[in-house]
Amino acid sequence: MTSGMCVRCGGRIVAFQKESVAREKARQLSDQVGYPVTYRMLKGIMLCGVCLDALPLIGQEICQRCGRDRELQASIGNEGLCRDCVHGEDGQSLVANRSLLRYEKGEKDLLGLFKYRGDERLALYYGTLLAITVQRYYRSIGFTCITTVPLHPQRLRERGFNQVDLLARHLGAAIKIPVKPLLLRTKDTPKLSKQKGRAARHESMREAFVWGGQDIPSAATILLLDDIYTTGSTLRSCAKAIKEHLGPSCEVYSLTIYR
């Protein structure tokens, strides 16, 4: 029995060949209570068994703030934070970040296809990965809404769409949480990949976002969505703008596909 084409390799998805892989990955990603939901999502995701098995999942031992895999950062201390988070600036604006996958070479190529071509199949694929990440890490948190990192109007005109908005649409439908645009981007910053060093990235993101959304409760718990967490400068700048508007009782968590 086949069920469509794999979004990664283009091969046929053979359901019975994928079954055991989906079960094993669900065991890795969830406890006994969360297993059935995670298993159903993995079983339905548009990957063949081989590609599902090859996903570079972030392990169990992570930095408790940014979600970085300990395998990539051996110096996670007793307090559960990596070196960057211990010495980082503005750490209080964002409660925590969680991601599902390590940002490796093959993942960069696939994300590029989605980010610059807008393939709707990949929006569903990535939206499902994000829903699995919520199930893995944030299942017990009652989020008020999902919001996204906005593009600057100039960048939006060039690209034609904001890929994170597509992800939010699929994620919101999957986890039954409303999506609300809360921020505006006021600075057309250079791509982070073209900026050298953490300090330069942090400075470029300073006051890059302002509140532009509708009224929500000041004690809201907000899920802030982006595709990649690199230095965290963008997400922390967004979280700071949200908290400056709503006040200290608001909590902002972030969620990305990649870390």
From TrEMBL:
What is the protein name for this chain?
Answer: ComF family protein
Question: Lineage of the native species?
Answer: Bacteria, Bacillati, Bacillota, Bacilli, Bacillales
Q: Which Gene3D superfamilies does the record cross-reference, listed alphabetically?
A: 3.40.50.2020
Family that this chain belongs to: Belongs to the ComF/GntX family.
CDD domains xrefs: PRTases_typeI
- What's the source species for this entry? Brevibacillus antibioticus
